[in-house]
Amino acid sequence: MMSFILVSMVSSLTSIDTLGNFLRAQRERLEPDGTMTKVRRRTPGLRREEVAARAGMSAIWYMRIEQGKAEAVSAPTLARIAEALELAPAERAHLFHLAGRSDPVAPPESGRQVPDALRRCVGTFGGPAYVLDRLWNVAAANDDAIALFGDWIGRGENLLRFVFLSDEARGLIDDWPGRAQRLLAEFRLDHGRRSQDADMAALVDTLRTESPECALWWREQQVLDREGGLRRFNHPGRGLLTFDQLTLVPAGNSTLKLVLLFPDQSESMISASTARQSLAS
173: which DSSP letter? Predict the structure, then answer.
């Protein structure tokens, strides 16, 4: 127990120190305000007092934060510091990550706009492929995806609504209870990252109200990373289909997910081997 406490304390102190180093580096890269340009400076960038003034906080409090002497910094305070230091979205996200806080002002979402290159990837992929937005609405899908899942995916509807609120999903998805529970646990991770998103909260409320299984599993608080692997579907016209799923997050838009379903090679190899044996006999 003592070793665990010591490790936790070292990790916390390291994080605070890293936060201070980051703030210092960002402060030193900024040019002084115009009214201060005539003052001779021994160090580059803004002074701590100038950052504090920009952020509307005391110079002593900001100094404690930068020196790693402040153990708990609130999210609103971090937001004011981020604005004072003119941080870019990636830098702002890094600041909140170092401080272990959630950003009260979510970065601008790009909505469901899918880059042309990503649409070409979906359209030319040799298997079912689709793109999910931050709410897991389908933002793009190819013909193979429509053939597998149905017309709903081509209309850009919500993946979770299909899984939990449609009878077709229960017949299509092999081991529906296990897959649906896993999917909800993966979605909870996204939900936690955007806990202030009103649209996401409304989606969860609808699912919990209309699906008893979703209500039960949501209360269990299970959280999982997005996972690839085999996916099996009981297609009404083509029988049992097996795919190897890969999910990618495009650079520049972490709210989108590209989902690719590769035909399972192991089953293809078994089928080919069986055919060769039949020919040989």
Answer: B
